[in-house]
Structures are given as C-alpha cells and as structure tokens.
Amino acid sequence: GAATISIFLKPPGVIPPGGSTTICCSCQCANGNVVLYKDGKQLRTREPRDGRAEFPISNATQKDAGPYSCHYVAGGTVLARSETLEITVKEFSLPKPVLSVLPGLEVPAGAYVTFRCTITHSNAGCFLYLEGQDKAPDLIHKDQDDFNLPRVYKGNEGRYSCQCYSGAALVEWSDVSNSLDLVVK
C-alpha cells in the first residue's frame, strides 16, 4: 500500500487572535518523518507517533494564518503529500452557537440524523465540523438551520462542532460551539 497523509485541525475552526489549536498530520506510514509546510516553505519536522505528528499553534496571530500542508518523507524522498489546509485567524464578534443532534447522540446505523446549529444572529451562516476530517467542512446555509445525514453509518461517527459567520466576505465569526460525540450502533 502506498503511503498516504492527511491534515486537519484539532479543534477545528477559525482561531481567535491569542487562541490555540493543533495541526495534526495523520499518515499511513512505516518509518520516516512528517514535514509541515506553510506557503510552500518548510516549517517543522516531526517523527510520527502512532501514525500522527502534531504541530501546536499557541497565542495565534495573523502570521499563523495561511495554507499548510504535510509531507511524509523517508530516505530523503517525499512519499506522500496532504491536501492544503487553510488556517484563518479572526476576532470572534458573534455569539457562540449551540449545536444539537436529533434524534440523539446514539443512533442505529441507517438512521436519519439532523445537526442543528443555533445562533442568536438573524443572517448568520454556519459550518459543521467533524474532527479529524481533512475535507472542507460542511456549510449550513443562511436559509436553513439544519444539516441532515439521511442514512448514517459507522463512518459518520465522531466529534462534531459548528461555527458561524456573517457578511459576504466572512467578516464576523462566532466562537466554536461545544462539541458533541455521535455514536452509530
């Protein structure tokens, strides 16, 4: 099997100035190192533990914003590259949203599950995050409050949270909601 590597933020979402997060590079790799890049420039190198290398960011500033990627390197050769992860650092000026899950946090496989992100702001749109997911988060549009999963399966399990914004240029942001753990039985 070819080596693969993915990149995600833990916790996910936009980071406030002074806030902290961890860039996680998860790889299917035997030996070698994980190299973190920003804007195509090499930043830091770590040896993965249990298939993961973590790069913490604390006291975030605008300098921390930008495109990041992970490379898996062994014997001087790049064996795998992750997708690009865009990190955003913005002040939070909207109220913190509340995430709820219907019918509940434990559901049978095949159930219809609704995530509801509630915020006291008339025209905010929200993102639904799944921790560890390296694809772009799902967008809950302004004209709908819910994100629906018609038939859940084991792959939908995990830690979810949401974050809202308003303005055409994603001008104002909320803090990230408390996270909820979905279990599929």
UniProtKB/TrEMBL annotation:
One of its GO terms (biological process) is immune response-regulating signaling pathway. Residues 10-90, 102-185 form the Immunoglobulin domain. InterPro entries: Ig-like_dom_sf (IPR036179), Ig-like_fold (IPR013783), Ig-like_Receptors_ImmuneReg (IPR050412), Ig_sub (IPR003599). Keywords: Disulfide bond, Glycoprotein, Immunoglobulin domain, Repeat, Signal. It comes from the Eukaryota. SUPFAM superfamilies: Immunoglobulin. This is IGSF1 protein. The gene is Igsf1.
